[in-house]
Amino acid sequence: MCAMSEIPPPPWRASRRSAAPRKPLSRDAIVDAALSLLDREGLDAVSMRRVAEELNTGAASLYAHVANKDELLELAYDRVLGEIRLPEPDPARWRAQIREIAQESYRVLAAHSDIARVSLANVPTGPNSVRVAEAMLGVLISGGVPPQQAAWAVDRIALYISADAYEGSLYQSRQRASGKPVDEFVADFFGQVHDYYRTLPPARFPYLYEHADVLVQGDGEVRFEFGLELLISGLDRFLPGAG
Amino acid sequence: MCAMSEIPPPPWRASRRSAAPRKPLSRDAIVDAALSLLDREGLDAVSMRRVAEELNTGAASLYAHVANKDELLELAYDRVLGEIRLPEPDPARWRAQIREIAQESYRVLAAHSDIARVSLANVPTGPNSVRVAEAMLGVLISGGVPPQQAAWAVDRIALYISADAYEGSLYQSRQRASGKPVDEFVADFFGQVHDYYRTLPPARFPYLYEHADVLVQGDGEVRFEFGLELLISGLDRFLPGAG
DNA sequence: TTCGCTTGACGAACACTGTTCTACACAGCG
DNA sequence: CGCTGTGTAGAACAGTGTTCGTCAAGCGAA
């Protein structure tokens, strides 16, 4: 290497990218960039061009490593699922454990903006998806839930988690867009919903009108855990020794 | 009026649309066109240009009646919810009635392709949305569920219905795209999933491997009602006279 | 009737999107 | 050294939601 590399080469011999003419650009790097973009600006900002830009390249280059955008999003989703920490099954604590797994899953999904949308839009088949499913199924079956009911329960609970995480991300993006702090935003929002219910004609909507206050009670977390508890305690009657 | 209107005007004075120079083009007509397009070709086919084309006009014309695409989709969604038939609350049959409302809602959503996606993407505030909410809340409260738990349960059940209807529409569009008949499609799909579970290393995925058969048991309807039953029977312990 | 004004229609354009085509630079191999 | 295959990208295609500015039609008033 001599000093030649210090002065710019003549333009007609210059590579299209002046410095670092050949980037490594791997599948992993692309998924990394997509996730970083997702976390910063949300799923809508994740376009092939923006991801490529993040890597200082063009959109067409991504297609050498990834079949299409759907595959990229599924890869990103499965990478996110990899962050979920799972407990060792303990039959004595199966209720607490299924609850822990669900809460942990919700937390991890919520930590990555509206990534939950891709779990609803695609049938999850990635390696980390089956890892979580195995854990949930193991906890339920070793806890005494019959296999058939345990299998369906895993399916339903997973759907519930994804749906609620997605809904939660919607409120979060609305809150972010409003510019208000979280507390003020939810207070305003629930206040508006409450007022709306109170403007309904009580004759036609007696229950919504009457119970407007409890309808706006409880934030996203309380509601998530309430529904989760319904699903789990609904399994009671399938346990051995139940009517 | 003389015969002048029968002969075509000279081109330099001709209106841009040769015949029927002014269409009525109302909000309702636009929602109609959007729904018809949705039912025929799915939500992805519903673009402002396609809806306008359906009405023999340009996309820009729609914006005189509708703020943007989101508002149009919410209007279409609420119109769909209007098709849901609701029973008169009968406290003695509250379990059966909440089940009926949920099933009816699922049926109506499923009958309109992937309209359920817009219910997940937006906070539903339309008149028919509150109509269904009022009915569910009334059935639960008059059945003996305490107001707070009834309110949250309505929220959770509605989320569950939307999420499952959306997931169902995904499978339906996949099946339509595959060209196979329904029976063959689900048999193939469940067969593939089953085979996939059986290729997993049993040491690391003992439960999925062992119970691959029950995991692929039951179609969408069975699973929907199983989850619904979990949610409803999970309300038992809030009834007066429960431990 | 005729003049203005408001309302709605709508072609063109803007800034995007996912994806494909095609040319091309570079690495490893013979 | 030359050849070949792989990965890199610019350009282009067909589409998207939305806005701008123009223009026609209807209507109330003079």
Structure description:
The structure is a homodimer of 243-residue chains. The first copy, chain A, is built from 12 helices and no strands. With 243 residues, chain A is mainly alpha-helical. Chain A has 2 domains: 24-66, Arc Repressor Mutant, subunit A (Orthogonal Bundle); 85-238, Tetracycline Repressor, domain 2 (Orthogonal Bundle). The model of chain A is unreliable at 1-21 (pLDDT under 50). At the A-B interface, helix 7, helix 8, helix 10 and helix 12 of A face helix 7, helix 8, helix 10 and helix 12 of B. Chain A binds a DNA duplex (30 and 30 nucleotides) through residues 15-17, 21-23, 25, 47-49, 52, 57-61, 63-65, 68-69.
Nutshell version of this structure?
Two copies of one chain form a homodimer. Chain A is mainly alpha-helical and 243 residues long.
Key features?
homodimer; 243 residues; mainly alpha; Arc Repressor Mutant, subunit A; 2 domains; flat; disordered N terminus; DNA-binding
Write the layout of secondary structure elements.
2 copies of one chain form a homodimer.
Chain A: H1 27-41, H2 48-54, H3 59-62, H4 69-81, H5 94-110, H6 116-121, H7 127-142, H8 147-178, H9 182-199, H10 206-210, H11 212-215, H12 220-233
Chain A binds a DNA duplex (30 and 30 nucleotides) through helix 2 and helix 3.
